[in-house]
Amino acid sequence: MRYTLRQIEYFIATAETGSITLASERLNISQPSISTAITHLETELQTQLFVRHHAKGLSLTPAGRLMLVEAKRLVEQAENIYTVASEVNDKIRGQLSLGCMVTLASMIMPELSHSFTSAFPETRIIQTVSDHEELLEKLQHAEIDVALSYDLLIPEGFDFVPLATLPPHILVAEAHPFARYSSISLDELVDAPLILLDLPISREYFLGLFAKSGVEPTIVMRSAHQDIIRTMVANGYGYTIANVRPRSQLAMDGRPVVRVPISGGQKPMVIGVITLNQNRKSRLIEMFQQHCQSFVSDAYIPGMVAPTMERRKAPD
After folding, report:
1. How far apart are CA 211 and CA 125, in angstroms?
2. Is the pLDDT reported for residue 90 higher than 70?
3. pTM (global) more than 0.85
């Protein structure tokens, strides 16, 4: 074998980004090094892996697409050697592919990942951000090892370990009439313009809150991007429903938003760790799950105001 795992990793990064420049930025490696590695692989394998498009990056050839599948499998098998070794000598090391629900990722993922790799310096976390539905698919296809998401829909074949609860609330602009409310019912929201977070399964949860109460909201806009929704709310376009509560009370443009709890004992979302239901999980996955359980709870959620923190601040 006259190619290296490093060259394979360069190939994967280039294939996924479609650009030697972007692959260079992702890996923090010079562009000539990546170009040389790809040329070497094509020469060694005697096949063209990429089509070069002038000023438009690269695209995989049919052979390159097949190669990408095998290359990822090869790297995964190589990483598993570390996992096996760590289980033999009880040392935690290796690479963990972590997926996170998009609405949670910017708050919970950086601190949680950093604290784990700091506790176990010989580990590495590869992060993926997606919606709940795609995370389940990626787990099913072994594209990720663990997911951080909600308990909205957990089919058979998956394990869910709960970490913290997130009751629903509305967000409104500081000058909105609802901003003066201590809490608000779904009936009071019916005629107000709703900007809906339009993500698979999440939207069903939000709309299900209304359906359970026998009312229908007035949806004026939908978006899959919570930062955009938050900024539109701050500018007075309407209200939105959310469960996550960032510690910052500002939208992306610097305007404040106000959170108002929804009354009536509405079903909360539950943050948890999702894995495939297997007879035996790797030591690395088990340790990460334990780390999540010790690090995330109703008393503390990275990047958020946790439920018990809020209750302590609430007036008697």
Report:
1. 40
2. no
3. no
